[in-house]
Amino acid sequence: MNLPLLKEVLTDPDEFLSNGQLKSLALEMLELIPMEGIEGSVLDPEGIMEVVLRAAVGTTSINGVTTKTSDTPNRKTVMDWLHTLQKPAMLDAVNDILALVAMTVLDRGGSRTVCIDFMDNPFHGHPEDEDEFRRMQARDGTTKCHRYCTAFVIARGKPLTLAVEPVAGEDSKADAVERVLARVETYPFETKQILIDRAAFNGELIGVLRETAPPVFPVKTGKDSLRRKLSVNASYMTEETICEGKEHEQTYPLAVNVTYHNGDRGKSGVKRTGYAAYGLEDRTPRQVATVYNKRSRIEKSYEKFREARALTTTPSTTIRLFYVGVGFLLEQLWVVLQWAVLAAPQRGGRALPVEFTFGDAFLHGVEQVLDDELGWKEKYRTNGVGLPAGCDHGLA
């Protein structure tokens, strides 16, 4: 894969980075995603990707773009093109582009701590296949969701997305993590440690993680023996067994970290947290907690991603996955640009530009350029009459 515009900007930037360049860089990435298109159509993928990009940066739908612009095809035409996306090829391309952009600012040697997470995208409507969605706690008026497994690495103080994989209804979490880690293994660095949430408290999943690197994650407290070990007033290290006597039995080092809420989130009193601390047996519980807390930064990445997610009610899981990939690609591009060409070099690191925000600067800048190019409608014909006669408008 080749990104000549991005390479030029990263290695030989102009004095200023314009909104037009931001749009061109974003479109350059999206055009690498293969799309067969409609045979005999006079359109080309760039025209379709411009509509998709405008929907993403405006957090709107394809219909919301095509009905408000004069120089774009109609919604049906755009969606017909998007339905020609092939899921395996599209997903491979998205992950390859994520890797290409990430490696522009990642050291190729050494080792890294990788963060694994599961993200739920609420689903409204009727799916093509009832097995395609997962269940979640009620959110946004639904308990249905499309679930995605993601891998991140913290670099330059920012989370970079390494890989994204969908979790279909029949997939186990272990299956999804195995696929994600297979993509991470293609990176030139070594994975020294994996941080994941309580979703890892599963014997089969722990086994998958340990094949790549020592995992660290908080434990669930449903087991009686575990509750007893957590009912203490001082931190200590011990060990515990999960799935005892079963196929996926795992014995893990347990770090019991005891702290005090001190009014945090309106809570007070003793706070006891247990961590499965593979590879950290020689650390104190507080040190284990400090290592795990680095993972909290990926929540910021999710917040940014959601600002660039196009809306849709299509039952196509391929198109929904494509929109998710576009959101992660745009967020990744922003992270790299702000660190590589906009941050001011200084002793001890780089000072990131506070004015180059993701939503108000990057996304809005791309949106402005596309509005001009796509002919965004700025006036609408009125009826010339107003309220009908006899209608009491109540205005003085």
Automatic annotation (TrEMBL):
Origin superkingdom: Archaea
Family matches, as NCBIfam families: transpos_ISH3 (NF033541)
Protein name per Swiss-Prot or TrEMBL: ISH3-type transposase ISHwa12
Species of origin: Halococcus morrhuae DSM 1307
